[in-house]
Here is the input.
Amino acid sequence: MRYEFSAGGVVYKKVRSTSSGFKYLILIGQHSGHKGWVFPKGLIGDHKKKEGKEDTAIREVKEETGVEANIEKALTPITYWYVWEEEKRRKTVYYFIMKATGGKIENHDWEMSDVKWVNVEKVEDTLTYPSDKKVWEEARKLL
Ligand code: ATP
Here is the structure.
């Protein structure tokens, strides 16, 4: 069995809305390998030795979605299991609420086959995995 640790973001932006003044949009991508709709994230320490959770989250969000974002608050970590090359893996993911500051989703890399900004009402149904829905449940209350 192997333990893995990743970090990523529940990234939001506040935009003008005709009806209610402002609304929040949330950044979600479709993983190009397993095709699930997920929040952007990546392995801690995969690129640079000793890179911390926060820096990993900022870098992965930028690479996977094209969006630059700042960390605002840590969310409760989630854990899931999967099997890769006949080995059981337990992955813990540290997500942060992050505020978009720039960039463009058109500049996302190959790790996502699609990236979109989703209305808060549609986030739960768009997400593929129960653990991500749990993260969203917590994040939504803090927005
Ligand atoms: P990372 O983005 O952390 O570098 P990765 O892109 O290599 O990781 P994962 O997204 O962790 O890989 O996917 C590995 C396996 O876990 C896939 O089979 C995927 O379907 C499954 N998986 C991904 N996210 C979740 C989740 N939140 N809950 C359960 N299973 C998941």
